[in-house]
Design goal:
This protein is α+β, with helices and mostly antiparallel strands and about 750 residues long. The chain has 21 helices and 35 strands. Strands 16-15-21-12-13-20-17-18 form an 8-stranded antiparallel sheet. The longest helix has 21 residues. The protein starts with 6 loop residues before the first helix and ends with a helix. It is found in: Mitochondrion. It comes from Cyprinus carpio carpio. Belongs to the TRAFAC class translation factor GTPase superfamily. Classic translation factor GTPase family. EF-G/EF-2 subfamily. It catalyses: GTP + H2O = GDP + phosphate + H(+).
């Protein structure tokens, strides 16, 4: 008798029999699903630009981004087995720190194919400290998949990444993950997308079964039923049954499908006039008779216009619903040529690309991630960096697959590639084929601008927009173990700054210490750990400090004269200026000249005056923190012939400091938006603790069986909050922090801070 047993099941059976006698079998989730053959990256299809998809996976912490990415790679045939975040063996979380903590820190790019489409995917972090990683990934992507925990709906960081996607006008598809969780709720998740994200969710699937009995989905467009059978130990989700709905199926399911499909058709008709005309014309007797192809076509138009977001559901960990998600990515998200980039048309078929990320490799040196917008890139070719105004030579091109790379000879427009040999290029630089190519693009832009009579506006965008880098909120000193290691530490910090633009390094002018400025406690902790592991330097970190700001309370006028002789030259400058407090909401600092002064001063002196004012803004009158919300008016400047520009700047800075002190200094502290998700039984101790931290409660919402606490708290009071919250709630609460604004400190708190900084408290 011949038994036709699937190979994975057979392998599992043999292993089961071998280990059964020991009675000490320790199960690992997916060890039985190793493939015999894995696709090579060299076999990735290189299709027409219309079949390329550049997408990002974005979500709140622990929504399942990395697990979903792992399942996509497995089902597309590019990994031998499932990687698991808990086991620390995922493809995209390859850093030691990521595997230890079970979180994503750096965005990782992978390339694979799915049904004749090439997908360039970037898995992004969910932690607020690494928001810049999401920002620079979304800057170069054409579409995004927003992953939601179906039991929690929209969470704090979900709203942050959604805002980032909206800023870059990126069409999205939503994936409600973890549908097998006990508290999973399709209706709650859809309502939270509608109310919190102000989006228009269009449900494309309904689940079959709920919570632990979640076994499949019904596609509302095709009326196809997809079921995944088997337990997670013996079933890898690769094969699933697809069948048309039958009248004999569960009446409740049939009723739910009928109602959901009618809602879907109605939603799409409301958002697409052409589809509405089609319904009222050819299918007026029965809207339900509209073909799946027509509905899909209209839905694609709605998604690309960002009028609605398709919503799918599944459970990545249990291998359910990922293949339909891949189909939705290819069906509804845009190809590179469907995204409108005004700048690209001026380059025509010449190379135009944007560098969006740099990583350092010990063997290859700096590797630069580049998105190609037009033309093509070839290895061993020279390229021109517009931002740096210099030519560099690329030695090699690599196809990214997390930390594994395959060398390729060339790559065409619409793709993401890794380049070797670009020593000067940093995040946000525009790369073109040559200086002549850039000049030709300028000419085309100017010709078009002249025809539109808007030359100033049009010609200003000849460089692709870079990435907005948020200001750091934490800082601390960093010291090498010995003076001999100082040069090594400086090299390590330079490399890390080039990789991570949100990390700032400066030298304290008073103490000469190296100061590390970052986005949060975790950010600085990771940087410290990377210096130790990757550069073998045991550094010492000083205590974490908060990055305050300063402003003034009233207007003031000051005059100063600088009279100094250097060598045989005498430098004499007299400056009179006034400082004014701007509106409370203003975070900028301005400098203006009175009309008479502006006409009298040469351009070189005006520039020196502005430099003096700007340098004074960097050090406030109270604690020496940067100043914001101040306007400076230059009322009078007189200088003797031969006075240097440096002396003018020095005099202006001194006069500014005098004026700022006369105006009365005010310290501004960073205030964070806090979201705590906690069970109702622990709500009281959490509220009491926040009251002690000068917190202001904004709202308390319900999320299934939990309470969501929204508050604003000064950052200085949040040091070590994760440990305290864990103790108060026995580990049953989660929280997220995001910078809200800078607010004036009250007099009492400001005096306490001044004493503390002076070493008196």
């Amino acid at each position: 008798m011949h038994l036709n047993v699937p190979f994975p099941i057979l392998r599992w059976s043999i292993r089961h029999l071998m280990t059964r006698s020991s009675q000490t079998c320790s199960w690992r989730r997916n060890y039985s699903f190793y493939r015999d053959e894995v696709k090579s990256l060299r076999a990735v299809v290189n299709p027409d630009i219309s079949k390329i998809r550049n997408i990002g996976i974005m979500a709140h912490i622990d929504a399942g981004k990395t697990t979903t990415t792992e399942r996509m790679l497995y089902f597309s045939g590019y990994t031998r087995a499932f990687g698991d975040v808990d086991d620390g063996d995922t493809v995209t979380d390859y850093m030691a720190q990521e595997r230890e903590r079970g979180i994503t820190i750096q965005s990782a790019a992978v390339t694979f194919d799915w049904k004749d489409h090439r997908i360039n995917l970037i898995d992004t972090p969910g932690h607020v400290d690494f928001t810049l990683e999401v920002e620079r990934a979304l800057r170069v992507l054409d579409g995004a998949v927003a992953v939601f925990d179906a039991s929690a709906g929209v969470e704090a960081q979900t709203m942050t990444v959604w805002r980032q996607a909206e800023k870059h006008k990126i069409p999205c598809v939503c994936f409600l993950n973890k549908m097998d969780k006990p508290a999973a709720s399709l209706r709650y998740s859809l309502d939270s997308i509608k109310t919190k994200l102000k989006a228009n969710p269009i449900l494309l699937q309904i689940p079959i079964g709920s919570r632990k009995s979640f076994t499949g989905l019904v596609d509302l467009i095709t009326r196809q039923k997809m079921t995944w059978q088997g337990s997670s130990l013996t079933y890898d989700g690769h094969a699933f049954e697809t069948s048309a709905l039958q009248p004999s199926d569960d009446p409740d399911v049939l009723q739910a499908v009928s109602e959901a499909r009618a809602t879907l058709i109605e939603q799409v008709a409301d958002l697409d006039d052409d589809f509405a005309e089609l319904l009222l014309g050819q299918y007026s007797e029965s809207f339900d008779a509209v073909p799946a192809g027509k509905l899909q076509e209209a839905l694609r138009k709605v998604t690309l216009a960002r009028k609605g977001v398709p919503v799918l559901c599944g459970s990545s960990l249990k291998n359910k619903g990922v293949q339909p998600l891949l189909d939705a990515i290819t069906a509804y998200l845009p190809a590179p040529n469907e995204r409108n980039h005004d700048l690209v048309r001026w380059y025509k078929d010449d190379l135009c690309a944007l560098a969006f990320k740099v990583v350092h490799d010990k063997q290859r040196g700096p590797l630069v991630f580049v998105r190609i917008y037009s033309g093509s890139m070839k290895a061993q070719s020279a390229v021109y960096n517009i931002n740096r105004n210099g030519t560099e030579r690329m030695s090699r091109l690599l196809l990214p697959f997390a930390d594994q790379h395959i060398e390729i000879p060339s790559l065409s427009a619409g793709n993401i590639v890794l380049t070797v040999g670009l020593k000067q290029t940093v995040t946000g630089d525009t790369i073109v084929s040559s200086k002549a190519s850039a000049a030709a693009a300028v000419r085309r832009a100017q010709q078009e601008a002249e025809s539109k009579s808007s030359s100033q506006r049009e010609s200003s965008s000849l460089v692709l927009a870079g990435v907005e880098v948020p200001e750091p909120v934490f800082f601390c000193s960093i010291e090498p173990p010995t003076l001999a290691k100082q040069a090594d530490l400086e090299h390590a910090l330079n490399c890390l700054q080039r990789e991570d633009p949100s990390l700032k390094v400066r030298i304290d002018p008073d103490s000469g210490q190296t100061i590390l400025c970052g986005m949060g406690e975790l950010h600085i902790e990771i940087i410290h750990d990377r210096i130790k592991r990757e550069y073998n330097i045991e550094t010492h970190l000083g205590p974490l400090q908060v990055a305050y700001r300063e402003t003034i309370l009233q207007s003031a006028t000051a005059t100063d004269t600088l009279d100094r002789t250097l060598g045989e030259k005498r430098h004499v400058v007299t400056v009179e200026l006034a400082v004014h407090a701007l509106m409370e909401s203003s975070t900028s600092c301005d400098v203006t000249f009175e009309e008479e002064v502006k006409t009298q001063l040469p351009a070189v002196v005006r520039q020196a005056v502005e430099n003096g004012v700007q340098s004074a803004y960097l050090q406030g009158p109270v604690l020496g923190f940067p100043v914001e919300g101040v306007k400076t008016v230059i009322q009078h400047v007189s200088l003797e012939p031969g006075t240097s520009a440096a002396m003018v700047s020095a005099c202006v800075s001194r006069c500014m400091l005098k004026a700022l002190k006369l105006a009365g200094g005010q310290v501004l502290e960073p205030v964070m938006a806090l979201e705590v998700t906690v069970g109702e039984e622990y709500l009281s101790p959490v509220l009491a603790d926040l009251a002690q931290r000068r917190g202001t409660i904004c709202d308390i919402q319900s999320r299934q069986e939990n309470k969501v606490l929204l508050a604003t708290v000064p950052l200085a009071e949040m040091m070590g909050y994760s440990t305290v919250l864990r103790t108060l709630t026995s580990g049953n609460a989660t929280f997220s922090l995001e910078l809200s604004s800078y607010e004036p400190m009250n007099t009492q708190e400001q005096n306490i801070l001044l004493n503390k900084m002076a070493g008196l408290a």
